[in-house]
Amino acid sequence: MGAMSPTHWLIVLVVLVLLFGAKKLPEMARSVGRSSRILKSEMRGLRDDERPGEIGPGGAPRADTEVRDPGTRQPGTPEGTARPEPGPEAHRA
Q1: Among 80, 79, 83, which residue's Cα sits nearest to residue 71?
Q2: Are 65 and 54 in contact (CB under 8 A)?
Q3: What span, in angstroms and rounded, lies between the C-alpha atoms of 28 and 21?
Q4: 16 exposed, middle or buried (CB, 10 Å; 0-12, 13-18, 19+)?
Q5: Rounded Cα distance, 19 and 22, in Å
Q6: Which alpha helices (H) appear in the chain, and where do they start and end?
Q7: How far apart are CA 21 and CA 14, in angstroms?
Q8: What's the pLDDT tens digit per position in 45-74?
Q9: What gap in Å lies between CA 78 and CA 76, rounded to an integer?
Q10: The whole model's pTM is what?
Q11: What is each CA distance from 64 to 20, 54, 67, in whole angstroms?
Q12: Could you name the domain of life of the organism this protein comes from (predicted)?
């Protein structure tokens, strides 16, 4: 009773085709696959960010790990040089 037989799967497929149409089903499957790849890469990025080797003793960042605020500095600029904040005119189309 718990497993679905081939007849059950056929009924589910017919209902999906009736609801969404034969053209939409491949597009939806592609979209789900693309979304799952994005989710997987983001989860991998989060896991890499939380590596235990990045934090030194006492919870302080290690000396060889650069701590930067991406909103105020661009990589390669001196610490005293701040990037100007975009004004309201930058958002107008």
Answers
A1: 83
A2: yes
A3: 11
A4: middle
A5: 9
A6: 6-20, 24-49
A7: 10
A8: 888 887 765 555 555 555 555 555 555 555
A9: 7
A10: 0.40
A11: 54, 9, 9
A12: Bacteria
